[in-house]
Write a structure and sequence with these properties.
The structure is a homodimer of 338-residue chains. With 338 residues, chain A is an alpha/beta fold. Chain A is 36% helix and 14% strand.
């Protein structure tokens, strides 16, 4: 086990459920300095675990562990933090409660403040649902978060994105082996179906047109090889109830739904962090237009678009060109007085 | 029954199968004139039947039945032309042979020439897979087709579109009730799942962002109402094997795969029809870039993009503004000497 667990006891959730003996799995990189002024939080994305975030951390990069203390908290439902798959009865599997972005960030806040005694964060950043948590951090703890760089994500899940996820969910649960979540083994037909549904969304039309999946760094032999090797491989290692828990979190993500706020516009206006908001030009479910609207409602934010053909997965760490683009922006942001 | 059937006997298919006692269902509008010089062919789209094409036909419109003789042939697999659902054993249901765009057009050619004795077509036009058949007509019978206006479709199905359809297929067949096509009743879980997968693709991000589905002419009460009422309603009335037959035709559509051609570029170059190629600006699976590439390889073609937020369904006849845009182009094209 290459990570640690923070035990949080019973945690009351935003939508009324309770997370019994809540567990937050996390991993840290680098050392917290004496005045605790070098901390960065970098949450995970839909289905991902901490090790799948590590591509953005390294010596010489913005997230340099020789300089910063970087905390990757695992999202609830991702299989190692509290999840349907690891919670004992009666709150296990299909009975796992609904958790929101707000809930995720509250647990992460406990980790950062109680375990480490950190009062200020130099940066929160993340990809996709990690970007959603990044926004949530800036809204829930405006005095604590100095800078944010959400990439390929949104402050509030768009209706189109909700529809895309309805397709994913319908494919996942169409498998009779799903049994409303009370399966004894993973319903793999549903998992493979949802992977194929996802495949068209994850990368752009141009990415497929130019067969970028055949070239390095992906290097698949054919389209079918890519669908099985990359996409089915990404999801068949996950638990279906876990995926549905995170999918619910995603569909219901809205910083404007946080306590004390009357909607997303008000919540965006309350963000005080210095911000670079970074969509990918050809992202099919987090299109730049949505982030553009957000930035217009934020006080210290710049919109900076990742160019190129990789779509949503520009933020997935596979393409060195996109990774450099993100890393350069992170360096620039961290160098600015906030 | 508001349509007619042409019986074609046993028809050998491009990929080696045989369509036994092939049936081509069609409907005509208007009268064929004495010198048979006023015929238009207007094929159907994925899952659609002739009556779902009629929105583009009317007095005062380009496809004016007081002036033209308009033939709507139903695509093979659509439930009334030869299909898995209406073919007797042993070639019924999951044993129905693979049919291509080329096959579809060959049967339509028999209808037009043998039943009606027509030698020249003023126009072939169609939406989506109807656009694919339009291209195929111009390639298979270059001397016969004077003009084409394919809208929201392609000469060859793109890799990205193939991936989108893999998602549709995976959702449709994940239902255990599918039984590899040998179901006794329609696997409705799969049908509803594929409808939800389709929903994100059919309309643009902007369409959902602005909740255009809540306004007339759609006028749904909520997103869920739209997903059930429009999307599930569109597909649950279809037969699953029929949908899979047409999906195969779609995934394998390529005018360059026609006898005598070495690829799509050569086939595009062989089109002699005066052409307006009309993508929708925000179509997520037939993006304008693909048509732009096609037009660059055609000799007498103009690219004209349908503006606005309706995405692929700009060509579906629901939005009066888009319908007028298409109709205006058809009028202009028909008025030109070809």
């Amino acid at each position: 086990m290459d990570y640690e667990i923070l035990e949080l006891g019973d945690v009351r959730l935003q939508r009324g459920g309770t997370l019994r003996e809540a567990k937050l799995a996390y991993k840290t990189y680098g050392e917290l300095n004496a005045d605790k002024s070098n901390a960065i939080v970098y949450p995970t994305w839909y289905s991902g675990q901490h090790y799948e975030n590590e591509w953005l951390i390294g010596e010489g990069m913005a997230l340099d562990p020789t300089r910063y203390f970087i905390v990757i908290p695992n999202m609830l439902g991702n299989g190692i933090s509290s999840s349907p798959s690891n919670t004992p009865p009666p709150h296990d599997r299909a009975a796992f409660p609904q958790v929101t972005m707000y809930d995720n960030v509250e647990l992460q806040h406990s980790l950062v403040t109680e375990r480490f005694g950190i009062e200020r964060l130099e940066l929160v950043t993340g990809w996709s649902m990690g970007a959603g948590q990044t926004y949530q951090w800036a809204v829930s703890h405006p005095d604590m978060v100095k800078r944010i760089l959400p990439f390929c994500g949104a402050a509030k899940t768009s209706l189109h994105n909700i529809v895309f996820l309805e397709g994913v969910k319908a494919a996942l649960t169409a498998d009779a082996g799903f049994h409303n979540g009370w399966y004894d083994k993973q319903p793999v037909i549903g998992l493979r179906a949802m992977a194929r549904v996802y495949a068209g969304w994850g990368f752009s039309q141009q990415f497929y047109r130019e067969k970028i999946y055949e070239r390095e760094p992906i290097g698949c032999g054919s389209l079918e090889d890519f669908l099985v090797g990359f996409w089915e491989g990404l999801f068949i290692k996950r638990d279906v109830n876990n995926l549905l828990t995170m999918l619910w979190t995603w569909q219901n993500a809205d910083i404007g739904d946080s306590p004390g706020f009357a909607g997303v516009e008000e919540a965006l206006g309350a963000i005080r962090a210095l911000s670079i908001v970074m969509p990918a030009q050809q992202d099919l479910y987090f299109p730049p237009e949505d982030n553009e609207w957000e930035v217009a409602h934020m006080s210290r934010a710049e919109l900076r678009v990742i160019p190129g053909a990789w779509g949503h997965f520009a933020g997935g760490g596979l393409n060195p060109v996109d990774t450099k683009f993100i890393d350069d922006a992170l360096k620039e942001l961290l160098a600015q007085e906030a």
